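Aim 2, interim progress: modelling of the xanthosine-5'-monophosphate-bound target.
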Amino acid sequence: MHNVQRIVIVDFGAQYTQLIARRVREAKVFCEVVPYSTPLSDIAAKEPVGVILSGGPASVLDADAPRIDPAIYELGVPVLGICYGMQLTAHTLGGVVERAAQREYGRVPVDFDTTSPLFTGMKPQSIVWMSHTYHVTRAPEGFTSIARSENCGFCAMANPEKRIYAVQFHPEVTHSEEGQKVLANFLYNVCGCVGDWTMSAFIDQAVAAIREQVGPEGRVMLGLSGGVDSSVAAALISRAIGERLTCVYVDHGFMRKNETESVREVFTKQFPVNLVIVDARKRFLDKLTGVSDPETKRKLIGGEFVYCFADEAKKLTGVEFLAQGTIYPDVIESGSVKGSAVIKSHHNVGGLPADVKAKFTGGLVEPIRMLFKDEVRKVGEELGMPRDMVWRQPFPGPGLAIRIMGEITEDKLETVRESDAILREEVAAAGLDRDINQYFTVLTNTRTVGVMGDERTHDFVLAIRAVTTDDFMTVDWARLPYDLLAKVSARIVNEVPRVNRIVYDITTKPPATVEWE
Ligand code: XMP
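Predicted structure of the complex, ligand included:
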């Protein structure tokens, strides 16, 4: 990101580091997370207007604890240490850190010195979130305490002359009542930020950067899934280079109702690209005939998908760049201190065979790799993309195929596709589509007896699944209003063939998963 002010967040492995980054971005300041092992020269080269040292699980008193080059405090750039970052600052600059008599965890009332620029405009006392075993008992020379609690004389310390600040609590979590204010004060009062990180500024820069990377003649290929990330990436690249972008969309036949049509509409009219829609519906269905084991289904679909995509890539000539909708959490995770080497395969492109990858001699174009998911959605909105596409709920790669228990047939696909469309329509009509993180229908492989008119029926049981979650690692089932459930149920049994009974899935994850297969 050129021409915007930036904050560098040095990550010491805290679970909250990404949250700090999101809060800084919410304050309209661009920031980047780097591992603590990053050489100081690399940090300085980014020309940050401020540095934040994150929390972390280690103790500064351990011999092998993560350290920081002390010269960081001499860069002339403001520093804010948070939790471990505070203890590290104290320890590095000659203060004393000791094990506290008691671990402090949870909400703690703290008295703030509101004459400090870090706490300007705040109440003299408010609640903060603490989580620490060690604390500072003597500040380094030049520092004074600027916040206190009953058990801790140094809830925050400052050396205003050198513009070094540190807080023992976590301003980034919402339990800290005025946490966002503390971060904003650091950014605006101490670092002199102007708040130049806006999505429209991002779009202008991203478009210029794509043009620069690709050059006046360069051609790009992107795998389009219809999901938010690849769609927004495609829209940005379309804006930059128009039809020099080829998007390949594989229709495996397990898409939701109208999804393929919507992709066609958007990427031929609104964001014109060279769009290749591979109609592989028959090919996939044939491949899956007679298959009912969940893992086999997934493997067959994944394999066939890469094969289709690679086939198209091979056909394209003169395309040197491969584009991907990688987003920032993936980037942070893959280089994180926790050493997680998991790099997600983005829309299966990661799984491309080596000879296909080798085709793309120009390298990767990843226009949204510095954005969080909510920022990606904002960019989509700012670009004027359709609401359905921007606010699309997560949808698994194997699609509806894993929402049909047992063997997949065209009839069953129609049942699950139509019922899913009704559920989506009614949830949106009830104004709940942004509150419920994921919702869909599942066609069970069980038939029950029912009665319709004067006729006895023997049809399928269909389940409704709706969940709320922050991260999809754990989920709760959504408390959908009874009236909404009643309406959805009545509409589905009346309008969708082969269903005579509807049940609601009331299981959390764990022990269940979101998807049924
Ligand atoms: P589970 O069922 O594992 O789902 O609790 C968690 C989230 O991941 C999505 N999901 C997938 N996404 N490819 C994907 O891109 C897949 O194979 C896949 N399987 C599950 C699921 O929809 C939910 O949002």
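Residues 394, 396-398, 438, 472, 509, 513-515 surround xanthosine-5'-monophosphate (CB under 6 Å). DSSP finds 15 helices and 18 strands in the chain.
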